[in-house]
Write a structure and sequence with these properties.
alpha+beta, five-stranded antiparallel beta sheet, 15 strands
Length: 384
């Protein structure tokens, strides 16, 4: 390579080059930088580096760029807009270092500018794309939240003499799960209720959830046998509805009937975790609903029926497996692996629906990210 080649590389490099004295006066600029800014040869000689900057860039140069270069002897990756002859701005990345003499005194400033126009345009497009994505995420979350709220009762309306409380915790703001529940009047003395969990997530699970709520309410009006209500739902889910693998759900349906100073509760369970019965005397146990098959899994399912009575001070708690299967943070341990839920309930006894729901709310908050599935709670109780 000849000296002429080296000089040509300096003058026509794909980057702009400046040499200035320690006070920032330009001594020489290569042809690339002159072409970018629209200056004829030698016009920049004697001008200050700051003359090529925007007003904001001058402040940046005087307060940051210049002092840092003097202290460190080099500077890299500084974003600066250079101003062309016609006033146009050229986004650049500036790299600089200082040439010193044998005594360490600065002799020259060597500055290289890289055209950052494409990079700036890319960053602008990236920011705009992020804004569009954030808007889209907001719409998805709003849609998911609206759909979730449409699948849950807007307010619980228990019969006179019964207190009720509920809580729903979605596992994700961006998706719709399959937990659902309701409480509704059937006659003047009987109320129906259910709590279930559809397999899977997303729109198909939401379709099954909406269908299950509708069928359960309709079946409960025409049949007072909880087991038959579940069979009616099973028949509907067994039809060819185009809902794929999401047709299966675990479910408890029941009727509440006023008797004396409490309520008779007739239950039917389709493979759902058993409810907690927390007595006014401080006891805590599982109601006998263990067994039975999930709804929608077979044409001739086996559902488990049971009955109990809620007296003054008693509270009945229904829940989904988002609670029992929550991770504790200790290896692969799940919350219910060692009977923790019943011990938790016993520690709250005696209680009220509002108090136990609030306690479970706090429990789930404590498990934090370990709750990786939707969790729903529905509690009934007779005041003491």
């Amino acid at each position: 390579m000849t000296r002429q080649d080296i000089e040509d590389l300096w003058d026509h490099a794909p980057s702009g080059h400046l040499i200035a004295d320690p006070q920032g006066r330009i001594l020489h600029a290569n042809s690339t930088l002159l072409r970018w800014l629209g200056y004829p040869p030698d016009v920049l000689h004697g001008k200050l580096i700051s003359d090529l900057l925007t007003p904001g860039g001058r402040i940046h140069y005087e307060t940051h760029f210049g002092p840092l270069l003097s202290m460190r002897g080099e500077l890299a990756g500084v974003t600066v807009d250079l101003v062309a002859v016609d006033g146009a701005r050229l986004p650049t990345f500036i790299t600089a270092n200082v040439k010193t003499d044998a005594a360490g005194r600065p002799m020259l400033l060597r500055i290289t500018a890289l055209d950052a126009t494409d990079r700036r345009a890319f960053e602008h497009e990236l920011r705009e794309q992020r804004k569009r994505i954030e808007v889209e995420i907001g719409r998805v979350r709003e849609f998911a939240d609206t759909l979730r709220r449409s699948l849950l009762p807007p307010v619980l309306s228990p019969p006179p003499g019964l207190e009720a409380a509920d809580y729903f915790r979605p596992a994700s703001d961006d998706d719709v799960g399959g937990d659902f529940y309701d409480l509704f009047p059937l006659t003047r003395s009987t109320w129906g209720f259910f709590l279930g969990d559809v397999v899977g997530k997303g729109v198909e699970a939401a379709v099954v959830t909406g269908l299950a709520r509708y069928v359960l309410r309709s079946a409960a009006v025409s049949d007072d046998d909880p087991v038959q209500v579940l069979r009616n739902l099973n028949s509907v889910l067994g039809q060819k509805l185009g809902i794929g693998n999401h047709r299966m759900c675990t479910l408890i349906y029941g009727n509440l009937t006023k008797r004396g100073n409490g309520f008779d509760v007739d239950l039917a369970s389709g493979g759902h975790p058993p409810p907690l019965l927390i007595g006014g005397d401080g006891s805590a146990l599982y109601a006998d609903t263990i067994g039975g098959q999930a709804v929608g899994i077979t044409q001739e399912p086996n559902f488990v029926a049971s009955s109990l009575h809620l007296g003054p001070g008693d509270t009945l708690v229904f829940y989904t497996d988002g609670i029992t299967e929550a991770r504790t943070g200790r290896g692969h341990e799940r919350f219910e692996d060692n009977g923790a839920l019943l011990r938790f309930a016993a520690g709250c006894a005696p209680t009220t629906p509002a108090a136990i729901v609030e306690a479970i709310h706090g429990l789930l908050d404590g498990l934090g990210a370990g709750v990786d599935d939707d969790a729903a709670v529905l509690a009934f109780g007779v005041p003491s």
